[in-house]
């Protein structure tokens, strides 16, 4: 297909709030602020009339909203309360009475007075800590806009009149706008503002239409009729896509549809092997926005929440409250399922802004993760306090990364203890039973696992780094990356050793590296005795499917055979053949997950 | 007649828009006036925005005061609403 447009391809990234991939044409909705140029004074004898004009506009607005409420589509009926809230704002004294008072006292026109009232309300809301409540100012502004429009006598663009299938692009969409839409004609939504908790997000999910919000200036970057790709899974938006991108996404779209229909039915069910072993499947999360997808894909909690992002994206280190806010959002979204928060794994290749960019000759072996935290105890304690405080909002576990031996565990626990004592003194609540675990990702920790197990509540095996350190391979270095080999018998033996140490020490053990989400590794991991895996949420459904179709006994045969092989090539071939015989037609079925394999094992 | 009582927010989301809307809804059904107070700030039970600005997360205790003829049945209804977590499951 040829693209006729002359515009260049533009890529944007927003907040993905409702999943799905669509390709369609833009319909821009102008909901820009009504321009109030008319600020004028009212003569005394006309004040009553001005008040009446305002009251009439309120009545008209009320009727409009009531009308919308009557026609609200069934899919979003349960969100009708949003319109009730609009009606209540119209009757709120901060909104209505104060505007009337202003008209009378300051002798100004209704538009001006209403604007001032909204500014006042804005100030009050601005001081509120709670982000959810703070964002409700949008509702007030939406209602005010309707009233202003009615005062000006200008009609709104009639959204109900849209009659071809389009992607709606707007600065913001009020709930009223959303209910007004002829939803059969809407393919998806893009807006400049808004986030996970906005009404637009809630409604888009209700309609099961893909949406990407918080794009900042998308309304300036598109024109009516532009072709656009909206990926509600990742938050990617591509304006005027070129042919290659377009074909790419058409493929993705098909895969997404196939994937949805194939897994949706079973991904929420627990995963149990043929011989009855229940395996717990959790998700690794980096961006707070990903949390929504954890449940969709059937994750039973977050097995690894990476906390680096909040440090990297800011110029200064985040303070306790900023951290708490982010942790709380995730913990609440996942509750009652548990979230394992890994403390800062900065240093090495990803350095925080405040620490500057000190060049180390060998960053992977340098001052990073727990080593860095123990050298910056105040920064570390701030994070620990935030994690502890977040623990009251659900179920939280703490995990220390890059542990090489017992001393680091003891030192880190000491600082944790100080953080707890501080909170006790300040009478701030936290979960006193909070579990503390460590990442096993350095070979020395594998060797010392029996000892470490006596001092922590759980192990999580981080295979990405473990493979790197055990095989002395920098996976970023293209000359040796081919040797990065999850199936290396040494790695399998190490994992086995850690699992046995955990079992002997009666503590939990899970595995959270890329291996956990790799269909080819899963049977072997099960044979090693692991019964908890944490992975990229996207891969959960297929991993569950594999678990359901193997038995531990059968997988153990794989393990015995693999451990007897001597080269990576042989292992690779063996595993591939076994999987092919277990899952006929797997190339086609799993292709979606096989695109970027670390060990280059491409199916074809 | 005036009635005072301390009530606790039990729903997970706290006193957010939907919950606040429910308070306003029943406030409008009674003659009596409802006032909600937290940290010495008192707001009118008929004003949704003022209620929101009290900013009450789960477990917040707020003081409620109802003034008027039908305050008793109003209070009963209000307690029920808080007790049932504003009709929310968590």
Please give a structural write-up.
The complex is a heterodimer of chains A (604) and B (90). Chain A is of the alpha/beta class and 604 residues long. Chain A has 25 helices and 17 strands. In chain A, the strands form 2 sheets. In chain A, strands 9, 10, 11, 12, 13, 14, 15, 16 and 17 form a 9-stranded mixed β-sheet that branches. Chain A has an 8-stranded mixed β-sheet with strand order 1-8-7-3-4-5-6-2. In chain A, β13, α16 (406-425) and β14 form a beta-alpha-beta unit. Chain B has one domain (2-87): HPr-like (Histidine-containing Protein, Chain: A, 2-Layer Sandwich), CATH 3.30.1340. Chain B has 3 helices and 4 strands; from the N terminus they run βαββαβα. In chain B, strands 1-4-2-3 form a 4-stranded antiparallel β-sheet. The longest helix of chain B has 13 residues, at 71-83. The model of chain B has no long low-confidence stretch (mean pLDDT 90). The A-B interface holds A 81-82, 84-85, 88-89, 91-95, 121, 124-125, 128-130, 132-133, 136, 139-140, 332, 335 and B 12-14, 16-18, 20-21, 24-25, 44, 46-50, 52-53, 55, 57.
Please give the largest β-sheet of chain A. 9 strands, mixed
Assign the CATH topology of the largest domain in chain A: TIM Barrel
Classify the oligomer: heterodimer
CATH superfamily of chain B: HPr-like
Percent helix range of chain A: 40-55%
CATH arch. level architecture of the largest domain in chain A:
Alpha-Beta Barrel
Q: What structural class do you assign from the helix and strand content of chain B? A: alpha+beta
The main β sheet of chain B shows up as:
4 strands, antiparallel
Mean pLDDT metric of chain A: 84
């Amino acid at each position: 297909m040829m693209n006729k447009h002359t515009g260049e391809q533009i890529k944007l990234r927003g907040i993905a709030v409702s999943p799905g991939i669509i390709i369609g044409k833009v319909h821009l909705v102008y909901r820009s602020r009504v321009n109030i140029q008319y600020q004028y004074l009212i003569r005394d004898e006309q004040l009553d009339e001005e008040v009446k004009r305002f009251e009439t506009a309120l009545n008209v607005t009320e009727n409009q909203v009531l009308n919308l409420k009557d026609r609200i589509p069934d899919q979003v009926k349960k969100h009708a309360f949003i319109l009730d809230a609009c009606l209540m704002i119209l009757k709120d004294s901060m909104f209505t009475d104060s505007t009337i008072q202003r008209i009378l006292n300051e002798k100004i026109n209704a538009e001006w007075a209403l604007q001032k009232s909204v500014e006042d309300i804005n100030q009050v809301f601005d001081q509120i800590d709670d982000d959810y409540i703070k964002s409700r100012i949008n509702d007030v502004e939406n209602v005010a806009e309707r009233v202003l429009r009615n005062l000006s006598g200008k009609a709104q663009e009639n959204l109900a009149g849209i009659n071809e299938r389009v992607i709606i692009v707007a600065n913001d969409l009020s709930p009223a706008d959303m209910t007004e839409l002829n939803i059969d004609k809407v393919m998806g939504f893009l807006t400049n503002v808004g986030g996970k908790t906005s009404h637009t997000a809630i409604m888009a999910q209700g309609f099961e239409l893909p949406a990407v919000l918080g794009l900042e200036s998308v309304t300036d970057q598109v024109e009516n009729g532009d072709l656009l790709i909206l990926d509600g899974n990742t938050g990617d938006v591509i304006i005027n896509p070129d042919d290659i991108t377009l074909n790419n996404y058409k493929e993705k779209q098909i895969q997404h549809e196939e994937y949805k229909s194939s897994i949706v039915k079973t991904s929420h069910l627990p995963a149990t092997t043929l011989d009855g072993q229940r395996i717990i499947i959790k998700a690794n999360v980096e961006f707070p926005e990903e949390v929504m997808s954890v449940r969709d894909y059937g994750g039973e909690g977050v097995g690894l929440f990476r906390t680096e992002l909040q440090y990297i994206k800011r110029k200064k280190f985040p303070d306790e409250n900023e951290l708490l806010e982010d942790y709380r959002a995730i913990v609440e979204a996942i509750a009652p399922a548990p979230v394992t928060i890994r403390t800062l794994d900065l240093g090495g290749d990803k350095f925080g802004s405040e620490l500057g960019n000190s060049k180390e000759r060998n960053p992977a072996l340098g001052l990073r993760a727990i080593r860095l935290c123990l050298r910056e105890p105040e920064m570390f304690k701030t994070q620990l306090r935030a994690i502890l405080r977040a623990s009251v909002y659900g179920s939280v576990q703490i995990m220390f990364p890059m542990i090489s031996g017992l001393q680091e565990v003891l030192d880190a626990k000491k600082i944790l203890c100080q953080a707890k004592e501080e909170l006790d003194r300040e009478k701030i609540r936290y979960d006193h039973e909070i579990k503390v675990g460590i990442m096993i990702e350095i070979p020395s920790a594998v060797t010392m696992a029996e000892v470490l197990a006596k001092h922590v509540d759980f192990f999580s095996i981080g295979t990405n780094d473990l493979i790197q350190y055990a095989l002395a391979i920098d996976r970023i270095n293209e000359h040796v990356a081919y040797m990065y080999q999850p199936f290396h018998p040494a790695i399998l033996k190490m994992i086995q050793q850690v699992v046995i140490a955990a079992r002997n020490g009666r503590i939990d053990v899970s595995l959270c590296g890329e291996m956990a989400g790799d269909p080819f590794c899963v049977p072997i991991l099960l044979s090693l005795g692991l019964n908890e895996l944490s992975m990229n949420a996207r891969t959960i459904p297929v991993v569950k499917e594999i678990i359901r179709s193997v038995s531990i006994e059968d997988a153990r045969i794989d393990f015995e055979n693999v451990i007897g092989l001597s080269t990576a090539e042989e292992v690779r071939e063996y595993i591939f053949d076994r999987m092919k015989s277990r899952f006929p037609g797997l190339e086609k079925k799993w292709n979606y997950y096989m695109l970027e394999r670390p060990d280059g094992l491409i199916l074809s | 007649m005036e009635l005072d009582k301390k009530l606790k927010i039990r729903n997970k989301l706290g006193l957010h828009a939907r919950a606040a809307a429910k308070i306003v809804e029943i406030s409008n059904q009674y003659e009596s006036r409802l006032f909600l107070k937290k940290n010495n700030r008192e707001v009118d039970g008929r004003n949704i925005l003022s209620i929101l600005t009290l900013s009450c997360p789960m477990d917040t205790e707020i003081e409620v005061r109802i003034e008027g003829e039908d305050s008793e049945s109003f209070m009963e209804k209000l307690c029920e609403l808080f007790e049932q977590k504003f009709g929310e499951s968590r």
